[in-house]
Amino acid sequence: MSRRLADVLFIAAVLAAAAAALWVVRRELALRQHPEPILVDGSAVDAGANPAAVDAPAAPAGDSPAAAEEAADEDSLPAGDPVIVEARRLRREQRLLEAIGALRGGLARSPDDAAILAELGVALISAGQPGEAAEVLARGVAADSAGARTWFNLGVARSLAGDKVGAIAAYQQAIAFRPHYAKAQYNMGLVHLDLGNLDAAESCFRALAEGEQSASAAKAWFHIGFIMARLNRTEEAVTAYRRALSLRPDYVEARNNLALMLERGDSQSAIAELEKAVRLEPGLASAQFNLGRLYSAAGRLEEAALSYGRAAAADPTMAKAAYNHGVLLERLGRAEEAAAAYVKAAAADPDNAGALARLGAVYRDLGRLEQAEQALRRAVQIDPKLAGAWNSLGIFYARQGRHEEAIQAYAEAARLDPEEVPARFNLALTLARLGRADEAAAAFRAVIDRDPSHLGAREQLTRLYMRAGDEANVRDQAAKLERLAPDDIDALLVVAEVHARAGQAAAAEACYRKVLELTPGNAAALEGLRLLRAESCTATPALPGEE
Question: Which phi and psi angles does 298 have, rounded to 5°?
């Protein structure tokens, strides 16, 4: 089987793992108000440290205006005409096409009947035909210009058909005929918000919210809060969200957004609001995601992992929730579960190179080598500039004894990101294992140039200098290790070895004994003391593992 074909089959398997779940929820998710566009996942992968979780908050919930508009208004539409009575019966039975046919028949007999035109417009909106609905309702208001509800429904139809300016004009007419038409004020505010007209949107929502004590007023305060947040007027946003909650305590989207505002100065209060939100609606993915972020920042990793997992389950399209779930599970040492989470992230976003890179690293550590290579190669295929993925691929090759391929992968990571310290360190280790001492020493020095506190590079460079008999550089590096890390076990062992080689037995013994104080029973320290007593030095320790 060719490598390309293997890659294709691997991705197919990843996608299949979550396909069923995605199909079940997509219809519902399409109707839910989704947050603003999700920020790009943090995808840099450092194979020598815990991967970074995505820390951008899930944006405020409930800010998709077009999907949130009030539906066609059917209250008190005249129903004396038998055609209208029959059409409504058919619509209640979900027989929309028959209802539309009956109304068209009525119009054939009375082409300018405003009531039938209004009813047909509502039926067409219900049938997902907003363009034709707008045409019919325009005829309706021409026949009866004082029909506030028909003007409102014309606004709904125009908005759904993409004519936002026309929708605003229709809502204005509806309000002109009925000054306290709450639905029209609300929808007009949403259309302005969708167009980015924040001042006009705020005016619409305030006209609805001020003096009202209704569910519509709660929604208006919610959107005022959203607008204030967009304008970075945090205190006013907090006030508006609290007003929404005072009218509707179970308004979970308002609690989520309030938490985002409180997070800026009071993370504990933000956590409390999010905990209330998820108690009220456990399936609110944005609240679960944000709770995971704040739990993680507070060091509550088990709870954070649980919240991210719930967010990913509630919204399988939220790749960053599944990715962060995997990150936390890795940190908690639950590698198999982490792999499953990264599979979900890749299924939600097949071009998520960061998730595939982490998946490959986890598979590598689990010994699932074929899958590891496929995932890592797919990651660098998707994003050839992802330095961390090249580093992880280099580690995979090194552990397989494919050292030349490892060197190429590490070198590519270093080329892509000149400050990529782990890849440079891993490159130096591989060169040292191959006996290419001069190249290894240069690579270790490159690490130290970028990170002077990198103890591993200094320790290995000191050993290379010892092998080369470069005593001046040996003493220089040993002195720096003593100064930088007086309590680091590995550094102490290297310094002890340097002292022993120089015949400074007392200094070497002091280092070994300090190691034993820090880690009683340390085998290397005990062996060092034994060798001191025997007045002999032996071979240096083996090179460490990759970062």
Answer: -85, 5
